[in-house]
């Protein structure tokens, strides 16, 4: 830990935040004393990961305050601000706390829609970001398919692939979660047509080549990707055709004629309604199999989120996902697990599908968000197209983001953040369950037991709860029509959970 604190002290001068800068003025010994003092007053004997982060929220003005309002007004003249949540000062944000220009500092349990893994202005990431290796990657961004940098294999093997799900040892990198899913869909289609054509080495016919140029079969095959009701897989054209969460995501955008299977409408807690949920899950599996067999554009793959996030934080049991894996094997189609939001430790496992106990790994696992990079993992070499330039674009990912992912993974391992999230999640869930007993009209359908901090509940006044959260010092998010969802960072600890529970009770009393 002493080494870490010296590293943190060296890196702080890059920050302009009084919060983030506080340790930089101290000697390493003084920093260790500060750390010890902080640890001594932490709940449950915890040693804080960010010993000099705020001890609690600071609310000075309404949000947005006068400085934020002025900044929003200026921004709105050149950028669409209608979806704006709050104006943020990232140089003053630190650890689990997000700051605004008016001096408000909120405990952030939304974390840029589940995208910040190890805290704002994390010193270890700052060290990686200011390295010569990173500078070269930023200013010399390569067209990776044509001109990969000499150490690209090393960067992948020590970073992205070091975090690969069990059984998957290759990666195709992209830029966003939507992009990762679209790339996985393309791989699935090309794999399926290679099989139908007679094998990996069978070439295209002249008819296939010519028909592809007029968007007709067989060159543009009549295939599909099967997704689920309330699922969210992105906003690009292919990914949007598998997104089923909200109309606002899809209106006015042409879509492919692809099947939608029902996702189980389970009762919570899952274990208390095991029999009812098992029947509902079997109903959904039966309908999924019917669609696989009968849909007029046959599916090349099934794509599913371990926990449906944008669609309302919907959960199912491991049995449902094991059933999907068996269906895809039975009907010789691919199983794509979309871990864009659930991946990298948020559910108390590095990858959420590790909770399922699958008989064989998914064919592809897509990732983004907390990884700060994007792409899909796979193992079957036949998922590589039979010719170059088929799965290709100019950048094919970003070495700078891969370097950041490598630093994130090392930080996750060094601080045992997956284990921390599992333990903190159990603690937080128990606290929320106690609040639900006390305020049954405020917390309904509490879910996420045993899923780390991937916790949600339904609220009859959801939007009001989110708005009031800022007035008491917490930044919290929603999903679906009525769900309050928690998406804290991996460095969220039990003493942060106590603050969150205290602030939620203040909202419920109001």
TrEMBL record:
GO terms for cellular component: mitochondrion. This is 4-aminobutyrate aminotransferase. InterPro entries: 4NH2But_aminotransferase_euk, Aminotrans_3, PyrdxlP-dep_Trfase, PyrdxlP-dep_Trfase_major, PyrdxlP-dep_Trfase_small. The lineage of its organism: Eukaryota, Fungi, Dikarya, Ascomycota, Pezizomycotina. GO terms for biological process: gamma-aminobutyric acid catabolic process. CDD domains: OAT_like. It comes from Aaosphaeria arxii CBS 175.79. Transmembrane segments: none annotated. It catalyses: 4-aminobutanoate + 2-oxoglutarate = succinate semialdehyde + L-glutamate.
């Amino acid at each position: 830990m002493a080494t870490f604190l010296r590293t943190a002290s060296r890196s702080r001068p890059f920050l302009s935040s009084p919060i983030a800068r506080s340790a930089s003025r101290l000697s390493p010994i003084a920093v260790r004393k500060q750390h010890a003092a902080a640890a001594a007053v932490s709940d449950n004997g915890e040693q804080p990961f960010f010993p000099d982060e705020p001890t609690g929220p600071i609310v000075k003005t309404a949000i947005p305050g006068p400085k934020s309002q002025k900044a929003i007004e200026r921004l709105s003249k050149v950028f669409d601000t209608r979806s704006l949540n709050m104006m943020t000062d990232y140089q003053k944000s630190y650890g689990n706390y997000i700051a605004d220009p008016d001096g408000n500092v909120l405990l952030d349990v939304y974390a840029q829609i589940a995208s910040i893994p190890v805290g704002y202005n994390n010193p270890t990431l700052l060290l990686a970001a200011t390295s010569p290796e990173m500078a070269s990657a930023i200013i010399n961004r390569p067209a990776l398919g044509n001109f990969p940098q000499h150490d690209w294999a090393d960067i992948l093997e020590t970073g992205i692939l070091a975090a690969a799900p069990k059984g998957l040892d290759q990666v195709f990198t992209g830029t966003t979660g939507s992009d990762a899913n679209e790339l996985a869909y393309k791989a699935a289609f090309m794999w399926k047509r290679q099989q139908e054509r007679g094998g990996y080495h069978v070439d295209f016919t002249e008819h296939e080549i010519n028909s592809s140029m007029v968007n007709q079969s067989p060159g543009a095959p009549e295939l599909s990707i099967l997704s689920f009701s309330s699922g969210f897989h992105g906003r690009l054209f292919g990914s949007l055709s598998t997104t089923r969460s909200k109309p606002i995501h899809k209106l006015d955008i042409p879509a492919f004629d692809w099947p939608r299977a029902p996702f189980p409408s389970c009762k919570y807690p899952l274990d208390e309604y095991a029999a009812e949920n098992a029947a509902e899950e079997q109903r959904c599996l039966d309908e999924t199999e019917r669609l696989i067999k009968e849909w007029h554009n046959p599916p090349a793959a099934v794509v599913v989120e371990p926990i449906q996030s944008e669609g309302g934080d919907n959960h199912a049991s491991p049995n449902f996902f094991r059933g999907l894996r068996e269906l895809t094997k039975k009907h010789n189609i691919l199983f794509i697990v979309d871990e864009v939001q659930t991946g990298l430790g948020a559910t108390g496992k590095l990858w959420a599908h590790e909770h399922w106990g699958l008989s064989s790994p998914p064919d592809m696992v897509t990732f983004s968000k907390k990884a700060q990079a994007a792409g899909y993992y796979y193992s079957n070499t036949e998922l590589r197209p039979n010719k170059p330039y088929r799965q290709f674009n100019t950048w094919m990912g970003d070495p700078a983001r891969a370097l950041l992912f490598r630093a994130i993974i090392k930080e996750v391992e060094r601080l045992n953040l997956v284990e921390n999230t599992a333990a903190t999640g159990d603690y937080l869930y128990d606290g929320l369950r106690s609040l639900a007993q006390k305020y049954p009209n405020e917390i309904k359908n509490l879910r996420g037991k045993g899923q780390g901090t991937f916790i949600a509940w339904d609220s009859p006044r959801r939007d009001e709860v989110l708005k009031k959260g800022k007035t008491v010092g917490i930044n919290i998010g929603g999903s679906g029509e009525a769900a309050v969802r928690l998406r804290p960072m991996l460095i969220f600890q039990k003493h942060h959970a106590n603050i969150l529970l205290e602030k939620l009770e203040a909202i419920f009393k109001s």
